């Protein structure tokens, strides 16, 4: 069994990369010094949205011995007007084709799908219907390009006004359970589950056989708060008791997560979302996850050679 690969997503540089205050090439240079296999990208990190410019950036990453197997796309399929939803579908087709042209030998390539924003006035039945319809329309493109669509249990995209329509488990499960294709699966995010008032372990157990990729981060209780404060959280907004921290030192039970994914023969990608508090935290998180991969996947968990 192949061990999961380890990627990094520049959570700490998110705004600077989106606003062009930092070059994506400089992030790739920094990432190349980490003990990882590749990076996860986000559409707004690219200075220009064209197949040629994107391919050049991916080629640069590959020259640094980094793969680009995950695209963190954020489609918004709950826009009330049908023509607006069709535009979101067309944009997703573009990114699926981008990933189809990206060289990732022998491993899966993915584009993230979300439900969309939980706008006031949208009924559950309408929202679920729109999201399912949009994802099903993307399946043929995903199959043609050999790119998997992964729906994340999500809280809120950094550029959205409203939280995720499918933030809560009943809506998320309705959508996931309605789509039956080998080109569709799940991007599991344990911290998002915690933020939404869910048990990350129970969510993983529920979908363990459909998880293709995973986001790794951790949350800590802020000073002055207790677990009881977190238990009172309703899932609306962001719990003020939580803050980002080094993976493996917070509330997420990574030993149990790694036991479950090993027993499920998971061999996809684990993408680190860290660095909010500085580069040192990201380095520490990489080290922790490398240790977990070695512990649960043994000799298969060695990173790609840099030279």
From TrEMBL:
This is Sugar phosphate isomerase/epimerase. GO terms for molecular function: isomerase activity. PANTHER family: HYDROXYPYRUVATE ISOMERASE, INOSOSE DEHYDRATASE. Residues 28-290 form the Xylose isomerase-like TIM barrel domain. SUPFAM superfamilies: Xylose isomerase-like. InterPro entries: IolE/XylAMocC-like (IPR050312), Xyl_isomerase-like_sf (IPR036237), Xyl_isomerase-like_TIM-brl (IPR013022). It comes from Candidatus Sysuiplasma superficiale. Signal peptide: none annotated. Pfam families: AP_endonuc_2. Keywords: Isomerase. The lineage of its organism: Archaea, Methanobacteriati, Thermoplasmatota, Thermoplasmata, Candidatus Sysuiplasmatales.
